[in-house]
Amino acid sequence: MICMLYFKSDRANHLTLSHKERYIPMSDNKKLLKRVWGGALLLAGIGVFFRIPQVMPQIEEIRQFSAIMPFIRFCFYLIGILLIGGGCRKLYETCQGEQDRNIDG
Question: Which residue of 10, 36, 37, 83 pairs with 16 in a disulfide if CB–CB is 3.0 to 4.6 A?
């Protein structure tokens, strides 16, 4: 009989074994990588917001895109919002995991 184990995310800083319910703490390197990745996403989203006003006149010069400029502008801003939201979420989860660990002991 083959017994398969899989990991599922239980908290921001723990993984749970599916049938043993044992917590495996996340390594410090992984926490640092998640924080760096969250910061990079956040900065990329902010960069998109600063870059849109500079790029939109260049895109408007392209004749094929001039008819759908509101849609293109909406898509760029949506990408920026998603990047900022993802970065904030990643940073919030890593900070919450750190606070949970400090409260637990």
Answer: 10
* Domain range enclosing 42: 27-104
Among the listed residues 46, 50, 48, 31, the one whose alpha carbon sits nearest the alpha carbon of residue 91: 31
Please report whether residue 63 resides in a domain: yes
What is the per-residue pLDDT across 19-64, written as a single tens digit (0 to 9) for each? 554 555 667 888 899 999 999 999 999 999 999 999 999 999 999 9
Query: Is residue 11 included in any domain, yes or no?
Result: no
Burial 10-25 (b: 16+ CB within 10 A, else e): eebbeebeeeeeeeee
Non-local CB neighbours of 79 within 8 Å, separated by 6+ positions:
45, 48
Q: Mean pLDDT across the stretch 59-81?
A: 93
